[in-house]
Every structure is written in structure tokens, then in C-alpha cells.
UniProtKB/TrEMBL annotation:
SMART domains: PGAM. The lineage of its organism: Bacteria, Bacillati, Actinomycetota, Actinomycetes, Kitasatosporales. InterPro entries: His_Pase_superF_clade-1, His_PPase_superfam, PGM_Phosphatase. SUPFAM superfamilies: Phosphoglycerate mutase-like. PANTHER family: BROAD-SPECIFICITY PHOSPHATASE YOR283W-RELATED, PHOSPHOGLYCERATE MUTASE. This is Histidine phosphatase family protein. Pfam families: His_Phos_1.
Length: 214
């Protein structure tokens, strides 16, 4: 699961920074997903150590009388632009000081390599599978790591257009195992009606909109 909306009025690319919590809308998203999963056979709930992920996992864990476990491998991807604003149309990518970080979109040069994200996310995915073997687990993470590990499992290239990620706020990307093998990948958006339209996958950019941070 991707976490819900974050309180971030300045539109900062918060990345791995501490202190970014769910907004009121984000809490509603988390509650909606908890309702959606209320009757699922969940025996393990785990989350990234960042506040927004822990807060998103909490309602689901409560509804199943579970504690939220923490797995550092579910954390957001590292990014050199953390702490900066990247609103649509603000010219951030035209600033010469940023160009040295934009030389290789395939690795990518501005942050944690995609291959490293896949390795740690796969390890976290298999650990959650083992913790709930024979049942279901919920792991709460962040948009980019979720999308990259899904792309790897579905045999797509890892570099991509961020606007086309199918991983909206509070969405569920489901990996189904048969033994030790992933046999299918599913995707649902239980809180879709709560997500601002410009943040949905494939939405057209809105000038001035602050849609970054995952």
C-alpha cells in the first residue's frame, strides 16, 4: 500500500525527511483502506519507518488487532532534491545547479539506483510473505519503490515517466504468491474518490500544483 496524503503546504520534496505526517484527508484515506480490508485474512502489518507510512498502517493494524511492524527496506527512495520544491511550472528543472544530477535517467543519477530499490523491496516483500505465510500481509511503502518493484516483477523497464506510475495515494498493489513464486499482480484504489484529480495516474499536470513527495 502507498501511504495517504501528507500535510505539506510548501510543496517540498520531503523524501526520507522526518516530520511529515498525514493530512486530515490522508487519515481519511487510511481509514477507508482499513474498511476495505476489514474482512481480509491479514495476520501481519508492516510499514516504512517514516511517519506517513506508519500512520497509514495504523488503522488497518487496529482493525485486525495487530501491531505495526517496521521494515527499513520499505523506506522512500533516496533523492538529492530532498527539501526542495518541485511544483509544476516552477522552473526547478531549468536551474543550472540541478543539471549535474539529471545526466542519467536510467540509473537514475539524482537518487537511489532503481536496481537497489528492487533488491530491498523484494527482500521486504518476501519477508512479509514469510511472516504471514498461509495468510495475507499488508506492507505500507512509497510510490517510487512500489512502482519499481512492480515493474521488475512484470518484466518492464525500470526507468519510466513518473506521471504514468499506476500507484496513486492509498492504493493497493497486490502480489499473490504460490509457494515462493509470485503468480499475479493486482491493483486497486479503495480511496480513489478522495484523491485530488491532478494526483491520479495519467492526470495532466496542473501549473503550480505541488504533487511531489511519495
Amino acid at each position: 500500500m502507498r501511504h495517504g496524503e501528507v500535510e505539506n503546504p510548501g510543496g517540498v520534496l520531503y523524501g526520507r525527511r522526518a516530520g511529515y505526517h498525514l493530512s486530515e484527508l490522508g487519515r481519511k484515506m487510511a481509514d477507508r483502506v482499513a474498511e476495505h480490508l476489514a474482512h481480509r485474512d491479514l495476520t501481519h502489518v508492516v510499514a516504512s519507518p517514516l511517519e506517513r507510512a506508519q500512520e497509514t498502517a495504523a488503522p488497518v493494524a487496529r482493525s485486525h488487532a495487530l501491531e505495526v511492524a517496521t521494515d527499513e527496506r520499505l523506506i522512500e527512495a533516496a533523492n538529492v532534491f530532498e527539501g526542495k520544491t518541485f511544483g509544476v511550472g516552477d522552473g526547478a528543472l531549468r536551474r543550472p545547479g540541478n543539471w549535474r544530477h539529471l545526466t542519467n535517467p536510467f540509473r537514475p543519477s539524482w537518487g537511489e539506483p532503481y536496481a537497489e530499490q528492487v533488491a530491498r523491496m523484494q527482500a521486504a516483500l518476501f519477508a512479509a510473505r514469510d511472516a504471514a505465510r498461509g495468510h495475507e500481509a499488508l506492507a505500507v511503502s512509497h510510490q517510487l519503490p512500489i512502482w519499481v518493484v512492480r515493474s521488475f516483477v512484470e518484466k518492464r523497464r525500470l526507468w519510466h515517466d513518473p506521471r504514468k506510475r499506476q500507484c496513486t495515494l492509498a492504493s493497493l498493489t497486490t502480489f499473490t504468491f504460490q509457494g515462493d513464486r509470485i503468480v499475479s499482480v493486482g491493483y486497486t484504489e479503495p480511496a480513489r474518490d478522495l484523491v485530488p484529480p491532478h494526483l491520479l495516474a495519467g492526470a495532466k499536470p496542473v501549473k503550480g500544483a505541488k504533487g511531489f513527495g511519495a
